[in-house]
Amino acid sequence: MSAEGRYVRSGLKTYDRMPGERFVAGRQRIALVADDEPLVRQLICSVLARKGWRTIEATDGVEALGLSIDESIDLLVTDYEMPTISGLQLANAVRRRTPDVPILMISGYPACINVARSHGYLFLQTPFKPNDLISRVETMTSRQGGDPRFRPTAQTGARRAGVRAR
């Protein structure tokens, strides 16, 4: 399947971004969703699309890694346990290449929480409510609040320099 065939288009209005952020103004935000469970992957894509995200789906870590190289992604949502490359390996590879991309790990295994958090990733345990997913994503991508590790680089640098974003 081509990369174009993996896109889920929402047709919703995109959110405005501040000048100087890594993301291109006027471009719809892109979320890469990697999960080997089709229903979970489709649910995540559907919820994000309703919030204005364009989503790219990957069925495993290898496919997701390739897509993360081909596309300029604004968010990675990955399952912790996947065939070939785990979500943790995928997240680490994406973080090395693009350290400002927010990463959310999901899993049904509670033991994964501490491992994901020890690597600096937010975690969401399945099953989850769509509002919980949106809340985590908004926390990670918010230009107003949230953990500074999950904000775009330009804004984080401005905050460290004492400049207030408008």
Beta-strand content bin: 15-25%
Give me the CATH architecture, please.
3-Layer(aba) Sandwich
Structural class: alpha/beta
Low-confidence stretches: 1-24, 143-166
CATH class: Alpha Beta
The total count of helices amounts to 6
Mean pLDDT: 76
Domain unit count = 1
Number of strands: 6
- Head-to-tail CA distance between termini: 42 Å
The string of secondary-structure elements, in order, is EEHEHEHEHEHH
- The CATH topology turns out to be Rossmann fold
CATH superfamily: Response regulator
Q: What sort of overall outline do the alpha carbons produce when their principal axes are compared?
A: globular
- Nearest-angstrom radius of gyration? 15 Å
**Largest sheet strand order:** 1-3-2-4-5-6
Provide structural commentary.
The protein has a single domain (4-154), classed as Response regulator (Rossmann fold, 3-Layer(aba) Sandwich). 37% of the residues lie in helices and 16% in strands. It contains six helices and six strands. A six-stranded mixed beta sheet has the order 1-3-2-4-5-6, with helices on both faces. Helix 1 (38-50) links the parallel strand 2 and strand 3. Helix 2 (61-70) packs parallel to helix 3. The chain is globular, with a radius of gyration of 15 Å.
